[in-house]
Amino acid sequence: MYELRQVDKHFPGVHALKAVDFKVNRHEIVGLVGENGAGKSTLMKVIYGAYQPDGGDVTIDGTVVRFQNPRQAMNHGIGMVFQEQSLILNLTVMENIFLGYEQQFVKFGIIDWKAMAQAAKAQLAKVKLDIDPATTTSDLSFAQRQLVELAKVLTLEERIDGDLVILLDEPTSVLAKEEVELLFGLVRDLTKRASFIFVSHRMDEVLELSDRIYVMKDGAVVDVVAHDAADIDAIQHKMVGREVDKEYYREQKQKPYDAAQALVSFDQVSCGRRYNDISFDLHPGEVLCLVGTEGSGREAILRTIFGLETPTAGTVKIKGEQVTSFAAQSGVARGVGYIPRERKIEGIVAGMNVYENMTLSQMPNYSSGGVLKVGEEKAMARTWIERLGIKTPDVYKDCGGLSGGNQQKVVLAKWRSGGADIMLLDHPTRGLDIGAKEDVYEMIREMSAAGVGIILVADTLEEAIGLSHTILVIKDGAFQKRFDGTPGAKPTLYDLVHHMI
Amino acid sequence: MAEALLVEGMETRIMSDITAQTAPPARWLTRERVIKWAPLLVLLFLVLLFPFFEWLEDFREAKDHIYLADSRFFSIRNAARIAIAATPALMVAIGVTFIIIMGSIDLSMEGTVSVCAVIFAFAFLGWGGTLASWAWLAIPLALLVGAVVGCINGLVHVRLKIPSFMASLAMGFVGTGFALLLTGGDRIRVEDELFRSLLTVRWFNFPIMCYVALAMLLIAWFIQSRTTLGRNFYAVGGGEELAHASGLNVSRVRIMGFTLAGVFFAMGALLAVGRIGIAETATGNNFMFISITAVVVGGTALWGGIGGVWNTLVGVLIVNVINNGMVVIGLPNYVQDGVLGLLVIAAVVLSTDRKTVSFVK
Questions:
Q1: Residue B242 sits at the chain A interface (C-beta within 8 Å)
Q2: Span B47-63, mean pLDDT?
Q3: Regarding the domain delimited by A251-335+421-501, which CATH topology (the fold level of the hierarchy) does it fall under?
Q4: In the list A129, A482, B32, B64, which could disulfide-bond A124, CB 3.0-4.6 Å?
Q5: Out of A475-479, B19-23, B153-157, B348-352, least confident range
Q6: Measuring CA to CA, which residue among A497, A487, A489, A491 is closest to residue A246?
């Protein structure tokens, strides 16, 4: 009924979807799985109209359609239940359900709240949720909100003649086990009226619910498996099956680390709901990779070491000293450098030039009595521009105008020039082209050789395997398994995926 | 032959690829450049525009008039007049520039100026009434009062987590009320000749207060470009999260910023008293609109991180040239306010990149 034929989508530097064929039949639940960056989100955005494909056709019942925006897609019966819940928390449940479609209840410019409440009640009944539609949304539990979200999408049923296709993006990530069961029961019930596309990191759930499963890798659909023929192992192999290039990750430069001392040690550390009971040691010269799915707690661990999160239990030691106050200032003072994922938000200050960005974390070193020694700043910046091969016309260049790779190098120079010997790298190669990625790998090897301890959250599994001395697999905030990454004895992708999902 | 051409074509392409990587192709008229120089061009345009109106009027009445040379507007006397009117506002505007660079806003200037002016006047008269006595101490006292008011502003904003505009607006009202309490509604005359020489003594046609303001401007420039504090203002305005993640004490920077602004407001108060020789509750009137307008028109971005004190100088001059020029060509007061209002909107429209900002609250 709903079908994508040979759909292509390009972004600058990335071929995000490669001739994807995708089909949803009536009353069917279709699963969609793939690694981070395999193209799942892009595909979903094409389906619900947020992106327009560059090539190929979108057809409904054989007719070619083209959506300019999600609203047009909705008018063709395609609805999306968002992972990040899209309800507006200060509005009531019924206002949320009919957001943007209040006109049907308006008489002489006034909203008939009673009629709206009644209609909302009918929608909520579809998802078996018995709450007062006038409840403020923020008062609901996460599970209830998820159902309201679903009810909101189901209003399509009244508005549209024809079939519905509903996308569920990671709907179970915030739900407890019983709630997941409840949701699945509901979805199965609802297949009488609609088809579903179900996206999740949890392989077992996808297998349980879906009639057919699409497996994506590198922007292409690599396999379609029927429910009965599905096998977790086989699917996981398909998701990751790639050859690892040793040269690419500079494996020949991987030297053993100094296991005698610990730069960072975690002893049964927990941080609220983010992660639980995590223990590890980071040694000088070691590259330690945290591997897990999105939201598995990797980032929170980095933020704890840097001082942005305060753990709720356990002890954190940095260079042998127990950390008692968690603040970014103390992290910086202990020699921790943090390169966060969002360079634009947390990496560089756009509007400030190269040397200003580099000295941002170490201004006391370049000033006396509050007066800056701009000459020294520039000299330092020039040294590092040369050392890291940063491509910038001069030190006065606004960092916002540099390319992603060069911004990354500026951030790195910022921490390294300040003498940081513990580096936290969160997706350091995200959004970089291949050349820039290799530069980053080179820098990681150099730092490691210089005795810097590095904790890495890699962009892909290959990257994690290729770069690391040690790999910790984390799932839903809990430690799963530790792998040793000595060259020649590195774990395979499949080993890791097995423990991740 | 064709092959050679092809190879050459490829080479140039590769070359341009490399240059594209090292430096983005330089376009002469970039958005950044327009934004940077627009305020100064507007100022120049206005300076040439008003004499044109004068010339036009005399031309209609068939009088002799050489463009610029016979202009009343375009004369040293009038330039001094504009400068005198602009100096107190310049001080206040410089103070608020620092705050706006941080991405906050300070609306306490009217109250702070009144309080500083009134306390200065009382102390000055009480301690001798002339700069030649201990009464000079009233000047550092006024600056201290400004710093304290600013510091309280900053503390209320940061510690109680109240949005800066609300915290400072409220503090401003407190200040105005306090000034009224002190004076009981009276005007206090400061008639010391030495102090008034700020206005009365002229070097090269301009009174001393203009040079004082210039000195303060240079100090502000130094703070902005050469101190950690100034750098921190830009860092907080350009990316507060990042500043925090780089180990900056953002709260401290904010409080220091408001304190510094308070000192400049106090400086504005001193010059305002020096100009008219009177301190009263109303001394602070109108500074809010003029200073914020000047900062914005000068090209400092309201969301922080971009701009500086030189922009503010240009902004203050634009505002005062418009005020003065309209008087010279005989337009009523209310037209001036209207024009300034429109100018503010134009300045913000010009400096906002609407492609990146999707929602405005």
A1: yes
A2: 89
A3: Rossmann fold (3.40.50)
A4: A129
A5: B19-23
A6: A487
ipTM: 0.77
Task: In whole angstroms, give the CA distance from residue A73 to residue B94.
Answer: 52
Looking at the predicted structure, is the pLDDT value of residue B18 above 50? no
Query: Is B20 a residue whose pLDDT tops 50?
Result: no
The helix (run of H) or strand (run of E) holding residue A179 is helix A177-190
Cβ contacts of B72 within 8 Å, gap of 6 or more: B54, B78, B328
B243 close to A (CB below 8 A): yes
Domains of chain B: 30-56+73-350 (1.10.3470)
Tell me the count of A-B CB pairs closer than 8 A: 80
Question: Minimal Cα distance from B222: which residue of A?
Answer: A371
Would you call B242 and A370 a contact, using CB atoms and an 8 Å cutoff?
Answer: no
- Of residues A360, A370, A393, nearest to B22 (C-beta): A393
Asked whether the predicted pLDDT for residue B22 surpasses 70, the reply is no
Find the CB nearest A363 among B231, B239, B305: B231
What's the rounded Cα separation, in Å, for the pair B87 and B94? 11
Closest Cα in chain B, distance from residue A364 (Å): 8
The residue ranges of chain A whose pLDDT is under 70 are 12-13, 36-37, 83-85, 174, 240-247, 342-346, 431, 433-434
Residue B4 has pLDDT above 50, yes or no: no
Residues in chain A: 501
| Euclidean distance between CA atoms B90 and A303, whole angstroms | 44
Q: Do B245 and A346 touch (CB under 8 A)?
A: yes
Q: What is the dihedral of CA A397, A410, B225, B293, to 10 degrees?
A: 70
Same topology between domain A2-240 and domain A251-335+421-501: yes
In whole angstroms, give the CA distance from residue A376 to residue A417. 12
- Helix, strand, coil percentages, rounded to 5, for chain A: 40, 25, 35
Q: What are the sequence ranges of the domains in chain A?
A: 2-240, 251-335+421-501, 346-420
Class at the top of the CATH hierarchy for domain A2-240: alpha beta
CA atoms within 13 A on the CB side of A244: 20
Q: How big is the CA angle at A436 (ends A430 and A438), to the nearest 5 degrees? A: 100
Structure tokens of B265? 């407001």
